[in-house]
Amino acid sequence: MNSSEGKLKSSSSELDLDRPNIEDYLPSGSSIQEPHGKLRLRDLLDISPALTEAAGAIVDDSFTRCFKSNPPEPWNWNVYLFPLWCCGVVFRYLILFPMRALVLTIGWIIFLSCFIPVHFLLKGNDNLRKKMERALVELICSFFVASWTGVVKYHGPRPSMRPKQVFVANHTSMIDFIILEQMTAFAVIMQKHPGWVGLLQSTILESVGCIWFNRSEAKDREIVTRKLREHSQGADNNPLLIFPEGTCVNNQYSVMFKKGAFELGCTVCPIAIKYNKIFVDAFWNSRKQSFTMHLLQLMTSWAVVCDVWYLEPQNLRPGETPIEFAERDIISVRAGLKKVPWDGYLKYSRPSPKHRERKQQSFAESVLRGLELEEK
């Protein structure tokens, strides 16, 4: 086998992350054998199953990979390509970025000069005010997409305002909302954010009926669930958009969907979003990067390229539970994502003590079974 074939096989094995492959990393003699004859103390205290499981979590950690940004492979590795790369850096930062910043500034000036009078002067005419605010929010989102030189292809029929329907989409970054919002003024459910993003949430985005929550407060869950039910029943409300993963995933995987969007008794309209990483990785790792720096990264890239698919509406089947409804992999199949059975909230919390206690109890029971065999 030559070196290129070896690299190819190695990369293909790294892509197959969900296949249990710990056996490939352990010696052949490490497997547990059934004891023959008299049981010895070392057999009772054998911790190889626990070590095997721990090593498997390290070797085959598909959870951590869901939230890992994979840097592009360097291409400016020789004397011929490096000058071209330098020219590209100068062009992106000194020419493209100022032009994009100017476009975004003009967009904000137009938006605020129209939004403020509409919001305060048309309070007596709610229907006209909501219609104009909806159009202005779509406008500012279009300016944001233009500031990234966004190349977005929309597939399928455009969403319409109908009661008893909810739209669900996979989640890579907060720009998912902006890309979808420039076509349709969705009311989105989103985590509360600090800073200027939080200011936008509490002022401008509330005009389209957006709902905010704080995942650290248990009371918010009941309030948000009630608001979702009320919003989905309104015929004049903006279409409701939910990201059921609950956190940003790196657009290579799809983590477990929360069941909340699937137990509202509404028609569920899936939306699949897939980014092309040829120019920039659109994944936002909120634990390592502020949203301001994320926007600067997008504005100094060549372009943001993505596809959006509005998929066929789905309804709860007879005898199907909301959890089974949420586990349908329509979005992951369409976007080419690998579905993994992880709860995305684990990124924000430590493993439950109950989970550790179950592992400890399982190990203790195996030792007790060994002692009973020795007594016999």
UniProtKB/TrEMBL annotation:
GO terms for cellular component: endoplasmic reticulum; membrane. Its main location: membrane. The keyword Glycosyltransferase does not apply. The keyword Ion transport does not apply. GO terms for biological process: phospholipid biosynthetic process; triglyceride biosynthetic process. CDD domains: LPLAT_LPCAT1-like. Residues 165-276 form the Phospholipid/glycerol acyltransferase domain. Keywords: Acyltransferase, Lipid biosynthesis, Lipid metabolism, Membrane, Phospholipid biosynthesis, Phospholipid metabolism, Transferase, Transmembrane, Transmembrane helix. It is found in: Membrane. The chain crosses the membrane at residues 77-95, 102-122, 134-154. Pathway: Lipid metabolism. SMART domains: PlsC (SM00563). GO terms for molecular function: glycerol-3-phosphate O-acyltransferase activity. Residues 1-14 have a biased composition (Low complexity). Residues 1-31 are annotated as: Disordered. Belongs to the 1-acyl-sn-glycerol-3-phosphate acyltransferase family. This is Phospholipid/glycerol acyltransferase domain-containing protein. It comes from Gossypium raimondii (Peruvian cotton).
